[in-house]
Amino acid sequence: MIDTPTPTPTRRLPDGGDWIDRTRPLTFVFDGRTLTGFQGDTVASALLANGIDRVATSTYDRRPRGVMTAGMEEPNALVQVDWPGGASEPMLRATQVELVEGLRAASLAGKGRLSLAPGSNDPGRFDRRHVHADVLVIGAGAAGLAAARATAAETRLIVIDDGPAITAPDLTTRLETRLLARTTALGVYDHGYVTAVERRPNARTEGRLWHIRAGRIVLATGATERPIAFANGDRPGIMLASAAGAYLRRFAVRPGERAVIFANNDTTSAVADDLAAAGIALIETVDWRRNEVVVDTLADASGRLAGVVIAKIASDGAVDPATLRTVAADLLLVSGGWNPNVALWSQARGSLRFDERLAGFVPDRPFGPVEAVGACAGDVAGIGELLPLWVVPPAPVAGRPASDDDWAEHYLDLQRDATVRDLRRALGAGLTSIEHLKRYTTIGTAADQGKTSGVLASAIAAALLGQDVGAVGVPTYRPPYVPVSFAQLAGRDRGALIDPVRTTPIHPWHAANGAVFEDVGQWKRPRYFPGDGESMDAAVLRECRAAREGVAAMDASTLGKIDLQGPDAGPFLDRLYTNAFGRLAIGSCRYGLMCRADGMVFDDGVTSRLAEDRFHMTTTTGNAAAVLDWLEEWLQTEWPELHVRATSVTEQWATVAVVGPRSRDVLHTLAPDLALEPEAFPFMTWRDAVVAGIAGRIFRISFSGELAYEINVPSWSGLALWEAVMTAGAAYGIVPYGTEAMHVLRAEKGYPIVGQETDGTVAPQDLGMGWIVSKTKPFIGSRSHRRPDALRSDRRQLVAVLPSDPDELLPEGAQLVAADARLDAPPVPMLGHVTSSYRSAALGRTFALAMVRAGRERIGETVVAPLVDRTVTATIIEPVLYDPDNLRRDGDGR
Q: Which residue among 100, 304, 513, 514 is least enclosed by CB atoms within 10 Å?
């Protein structure tokens, strides 16, 4: 069956409409009806043009609702949109969804739906941009464009506006100007950081999330007209006066035929002129300044507005029943004043004050590089003398006293169906804070975040409490300013783009020389360097053999590096690490272990003292950001009295580890002026040096147990250093090695890796590292080490495991059970599990590390690893399998 469009819309004016293109008609479907509109229409304007006033049903009270506004503040007209091509989006504002050919929309009762149609789960195409600007102007009205033009011509300028176009040809001629239409600022954060979402009208959902860093932010976000609360003020046909003017001017759409204006200010004068020009009869203007109010409304059979009840207010503040009268009308336009759009100002931590002239909250003191102009700053044009009116009392009912139920149809938050009765009950329950009132009544918690109801509710609450509106205030404004989908926030972070890719300065050499990469904490790290036709096992054994017998080099640039400066850096490190650093000599290095407050191992690394008030800390690759965050948490929240600054320098230094008995020879070639003998450059010390003509810093540190040096140079010289190391090492058969060989080398020495041997339940003592835990100084987690659970003798402890078959490679994660365990009688008690498992060139066999219950008491015992296809027996031994006396770290073993 072919859908046939309804006849030509009856409410479209024969000409006019600044935003529509009458030469481009479009067909769309709403609630199963095929309708027509024009290019440039929104769903809301097209529905009104087609004579459709009821566009939604309220969430809880199931009341008919119509279009109330013409912009992002719309509380009623929420629609489900099925875009051509299959994508489906719920809870979109019909006032901002631009019409496209073939669009299908459905009204919602305040709740979206997930569509199961083919292709409907496609989130669309979203991307992101990171940009910098000297000046960012949010809002392209007259005030915003004036502020943009006032900036210097050479200024990097960005202007954003949520409308479909920005008309400013004089600005587009500037070289460094971006004009972003259909773009809404979501949040303003510290240091001039702003996020904004850009919509693109298309046959499917598309958009872009902008991350903007601005030196100065100008808010020209305008003001939102506010309603007045009165009985049955939520019917279709009741809208804000400015919205009616917008539909007439932008889309040439008559919202009704017989209109009443209810206002307390002069801004409706222009709307009255628009009504007259469109041939809409203005039946009456109800002006509170003349003591006239709309008390109630009447509806026709469909629920649409049919009449307006008007009256005066008596001297006691109640409706004067003798003045009640009713006029027939299908359009009621309301203007209770204007609220400057201060949400972004407030997000930027600017303060607010209540302006008595405007009867609204306006920007007061700024915080950071933010300023407000135009209506956002309280400069609302044409408002005249405003007489505040927030709520009209209900008409008295003869024969019974007034009660809270008389306020049950005075709607405040139309999305939440929250009423003045709800507000009165909250106050009756003893709540006085506006934040508590918000949560009790749910006013301001819907998708529109109270854009039309928030200030209104605050003012009514203030009156009931007998307080000034400014004293009651408004609830906290939080980002996002408008609803945004997870797909838009995520952008293209899908598939291969789910996580940022970080590469070291030496990455091009690795790629050119056949490295096989693995992802380690977002970094692309060489896992191994295979030769022609060489398997991973063979390549790793070759790399390990070179490190043990000759010389090998590894790119260690991904190690986390943190620069600590300040007079309290030493005491701070003493509190962080289980061992002491405060008395570490300048020029020396020390391995440290860091615990969380529960006493479990968090991270480890080597920290070097560069000066009396400066340390260089290294962390594990994957934990670099977490450790920096940990440091900042303690400095900012627990010990703000400490004078310490922590700065990430991970990407400022490239690191090359030169490892093996011949590493001293290679380094001597590169740095001939540096004394390298063990007595001149002992283990766990560092030296400033010029290496291959590059000023750097060398650390005598070993993660393999062999003689080793870690050379740090500025990152831009990293590739040059690596190439120089490989050239100098060629005479000694130098071999590049990757993370897999690194793991084998450290495991042979029994060195644990945080996150592999540990899982958040492992204490230092479990790793056999009680020697590093101070018994004389407090540190984070020290008290937890005295808990009975931490002192249990049957905790899992680090051991090594040798399979009975020296060629058997235990899978990591394999469970270990007692040799006499009944495998056919589950549940089988587990003793522990394998954490690391490798083939060793130095040992000539396979081996594994494991965490085993009371492991140190089980040295020499046989355990069983029940696998899916076989059962492996193994023997528990000490975790240090290679060079237990550390003879090789000074090069004595070659």
A: 513
